Prior knowledge:
Pfam families: Glycos_transf_2
Protein name: Glycosyltransferase
EC number: 2.4.-.-
Number of domains: 2
CATH class of the largest domain: Alpha Beta
CATH architecture of the largest domain: Alpha-Beta Complex
Organism: Herbiconiux aconitum
GO molecular function: glycosyltransferase activity
Largest sheet: 9 strands, mixed
Distance between the termini: 47 Å
Shape: globular
Order of helices and strands: EHEHEHEEHEHEHEHHEHHHHHH
Amino acid sequence: MTLDIMMPFYGRFDHFREAVQSVLAQRDPDWRLVIVDDVYPDPAPGEWAAAIDDPRVHYRRNATNLGVGGNFRECVRLIENDRAVLMGCDDRMHPEYVGRVRDLVLTHPDASIVQPGVEVIDSEGAVHHPLADRVKGLLRFGGHGPRSYGGEKLAASLLRGNWAYFPSIAWRADDLRRFGFRPGFEVVQDLDLMLEIIMHGGSMLLDDEVVFSYRRHAGSVSALTGPDGAKFAEERRLFDETATRMRALGWPKAARAARHHLTSRLNALSELPAALRAHDPAGRRALLHHAFAR
């Protein structure tokens, strides 16, 4: 099983270099890396990537900037194998990542979504445990070893708080092509995709063995769109739509989780200090609306 590692690029050169080097360091050699440069203004990262002497590494530069969602859709278009990862250009794979994913897929071939174990690192690469990730740990299903979930139970859990780590997930390529990333969702596109797969009968395999480092830092899309309320407007649209669809499916617990979206409301409140410091009244109003509107 060759694993396609799709890496949309637009960001810091040092983080990007670490991400690519972590792929090159995989102990299991059966992978293919495709870097899709979304017209990053500095040509140096692309020149470095294009010079890598490894036939498994492919570098492409878009003709025009496609934006976050557009570049993810371009990555999906370029997938060739049955399983694919949409890896962040600032994250790190541990050397065992590809091998562990291979083992999980071989032993659980019906899993649509494979979520391996993840640790969180900061901008400098040190392991840390910010509040958001401590909450994710509380919401995530407990247990030990690989375990499978699906249906309303999985949908309701993710709607209470999205504890998955999108850049670490190994997806079934056919699901990515079938459902893809909808225009208009750039911050919650991962949750939207997972819910679509789950509503169509797909399952998630959850594992504990840590083989991936997810970088949480102030330059991420989620962090940049928090204080002005933009990401919460996206979330609210998705929650409203999903509540209706869950009721139609006869999944009342998932519909309630979407309607209440408690952790999303609390997250909006946590962004208020930043909006106040930025003297952004529109952002403040958007955050308060998301936190308290019925």
